[in-house]
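Dear Dr. H.,

I hope your travels went smoothly. While you were away I took the liberty of generating a structure for the chain from your last submission, since the lab meeting agenda had it listed for discussion. I wanted you to have the full record in hand beforehand rather than looking at slides cold. The sequence, exactly as received, is reproduced here:
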Amino acid sequence: MNGLNRRGAIAALGGTGLTQYILQAAVAPPEAMAAARNGINVSDQLLTGLQSTTDALRQADANHGSGNLARAATAHLRVLLRLLKEGDFNEATGRRLAAVTADTAMQTGWYHFDSGAHSVAHNLLLGALRAAHASGDSRLRAGALSFLAIHGYSAGNPRDAITAARTGRQIIAGRDAPALHAMLLTRQARGHARLREDREARIALEEAQVLCARGRGEDDPHWLYWMNPGEILGQTGSCLLDLGRPDEAARIFAAARNTLSPDETRTRAQFLSRAATAQMRAGDVDGGSATGHEVFSLVAGVRSARLDDNLALMLSEAGRYPSVGLAQELLERGQAVLKERAA
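The corresponding predicted structure, in token form, is as follows:
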């Protein structure tokens, strides 16, 4: 596991280098695990507790966003990295330790990304991919690639997102994991949509919908909790918005509304803010403004830089209609909310 300490080399990867790194993850064999002699005893009970902490942070993120979690998750990850370096474990326990580390690094990278720290997130996600590789669990490798795909279509190169998602599907080709395949297809579709590749995006989304309808498979991982019809619809609406088709996007977001979990406040606010933008772009300014007010009733206590970006985009759209009273009311309320959130 010495490879996990090569942070300089990992941080230097990007562009073509990132694509090569992703492709290598699909074909290279897992590394051998080596434990320190007379180190910290790594027991199954300890690993179960550490995994429980990662799972609890993941649920908190779904409800309240990542803004308050990045620091705690980073501290948790440091404990795991120390165990990898100084722990006393056999081969099987070492693989499990690498798996918990990979899952935690993925989540920590995501929390930093959702908080707006894109470079930190990128490095953590590459480290997660390496730890997942050492664990021998192809689903974790696919998971790390799925988060790298989000980074690609949101803050990097959308073509990298497509490559990462496709490679993830290749890695899990022999697994009964329709939900994981569907999730990767939505990431691929988002990359295509950012590149305005309409046909390719729709094909990926249609396949994702079919796979999601099958339900969870025997090999779908426990950490993939968010795949459901509402997620597929929300991602489809997001793609259509990027493709410049607000009419279609607004209809899809309307269909998604009743399928989104009320407990996942951040996700619901994200999709509804995009729905409001789509409605206004499609000409339904009053409807979009009403949806926008609904969004602002959800965001108190949710800390997410990505959500703030969507709120700002929604308000920018409302600002295009100075003569529409409801849009201006939304703009005034939204500017006050964003000022408060920034403070």
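Two observations you may find useful: Residues 91-114 form the longest helix (24 residues). The beta strands are 40-41, 87-88.

With kind regards,
E. W.
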